[in-house]
Structures are given as C-alpha cells and as structure tokens.
Amino acid sequence: MSELFALEWSGGVAEHHFRRARPDDELPWESLDARKYSAELLAAAREVWTGVALSEYAAIAAFSEVVGALVAARAPLDLIGMTSDFLADEVYHVELASRLLMQLGGAAPRTFEPTELAPRTAPGLTPLERANELALRVGCIAEPFASATAVPMMRETTHPLVRKVYETILRDEARHGRFGRLYFDWANDKLNASEKERLGHVAASALSSYASLWQRVETASTRELGWTPADAHELGWIEPSRYAPLARSAVRDEILPHLAAMGFPVSEDEKRALLGG
C-alpha cells in the first residue's frame, strides 16, 4: 500500500549514537532564504529535492539488502563492514536533503511503496547468485548512475549551501562507487559463463528503468514552468532538456562499458532497445 513519504527524528540517545557514526557537517542552513524566490521556483525546487530525499531513502533499503546478501554469501568480513558503513552515509544524505527541504518550505507531497524501495531478486537464487545480482544492481548501476548525473548538476549549482549539500553527498558516493568493483574482484572466480550471461540480462533489465528519462520528449520551456535556467542552477538542478541526454550518456558512456569490462556485457539488441538507434 502506498504511503505519504514522511520522516521522523528521535533525538537524544539515538541521535548521539548516529552522530558518532556520521558527524554533522554543520552547514549554514540559514543562508538559504526561501523568501527570495518565487512560489513557482520553490515548488519546483521542493519537487526536485523531495525526489533526492526519497532516492537516498531507497538507497538505505538497497544497501540493507546488500549487506544481508553479503553475509549469506559469506563475502569477506571487511567487505561486509565497509558496505555496512554506507548505511549511515545514506541516512545522512536523507537528512541533508530533508534539512534543505525545510529551508525551502517543506517537502512536496509524494507517495511511495515502502516494501518496494530495494531491488527485488528472483526466487530460487543461491546466496551467491543473489549477492551477485544485488551487487550488480546497486554497486554497478544505481550508485554509478546517481553519481554520474549528480556531478554535472553540482558543478552548475550556484547557491553555496546547495552546492555544499551536493559536495557532501558526492564525497560519500565516491566511496560507494568502489563497492561493485571490489565485490566482483572477490566473486569473479566463482562465476561461470552462465552466471555472467545471466548478470548481463539482469543489467539490461535494471537499466531499462532509466530509459524513460531520455525516451520522453520534453516540450515545456523553463519559462513556461515559472523558472529560468539560472534559477534551476541556483537551487541545484538543470533543465529537463539537458538532463535527458545527460542520463543517456551516463548509461551509454560510463555504465555499459564498465559492465562489459567486468564480464557482464549487455547484448547489442538490448542496447538498441535501451538507447535507441
């Protein structure tokens, strides 16, 4: 059942222990004054950053599943420990996006299905096969895609606070981006040709969820939407007409070559269906 996306904070002992795992960067939140912006721009910014908060919240669920799968597959203990540490990072990312939303006037109403945040794997997989699939979906696709599309937006962000939020999140994502390679460095000699082929098809299926980002034709101009490109850059995003090719190139130029180099190539037919042409 879908629920309204909302968050709680306990404070006290729970906050104390969380801060030991993930100290507060103490960003200058008051430097963002929502009164400076139009209602249309604030509404757009709240939509964008609510999406960021929900995406980072989903990453908590995804890495929770990954950690459990690593334990079941008897992955190296230090790899399990490294990946467990990512959970606190993702919680902090949700906190950062949420605090930014508070400065912007609050989150946009957004419903979500709490039980469908993490990737689902097919029933009947062995513990190793399940760990392979989750490592691929999260470590080799979701995290690299998020970083590849966020870095260009961070570079164009002009408000110092919003840029600092991006920089803090991306500092952690750079570490998360190592997970997929490290996992398959360990697992590679345990994978036969059939499993590598299966993972190639898994990758194509996972990537297909991003295809709508560039297959839609964006017709509305930013001025018709009530904000300008400069407004969007100030508060942390780029025009839809520029985001679509950015998302496509992230898949075509970064993720697909990386998958092929790791031994999980996506077939030419699957590439055409995904990218067109």
Task: Characterise this structure.
- This protein is an all-alpha fold and 277 residues long.
- It has one domain: Ferritin, core subunit, four-helix bundle (Ferritin, Up-down Bundle).
- It contains twelve helices and two strands.
- The chain has a two-stranded antiparallel sheet with strand order 1-2.
- 31% of the residues are buried.
A few lines on this structure:
The chain is mainly alpha-helical. Helix content is 69%, strand content 1%.
Assign an overall shape.
Answer: globular
Please write the CATH class name. Mainly Alpha
**Amount of helix:** 55-70%
Find the CATH superfamily: Ferritin, core subunit, four-helix bundle
Structural class: mainly alpha
CATH architecture annotation name: Up-down Bundle
How many distinct beta strands? Answer: 2
C-alpha end-to-end distance: 38 Å
What are the salient characteristics of this protein?
two-stranded antiparallel sheet; mainly alpha; single chain; globular; 277 residues; 12 helices; 1% strand; Ferritin
Secondary structure elements and pairings:
Layout: E1 3-4, H1 12-21, H2 39-72, H3 77-104, E2 111-112, H4 127-156, H5 160-176, H6 179-187, H7 193-208, H8 212-215, H9 222-225, H10 229-235, H11 240-262, H12 268-275
Antiparallel strand pairs: 1-2
Helix pairs in contact: 2-3, 2-4, 3-5, 4-5, 4-6, 4-7, 4-11
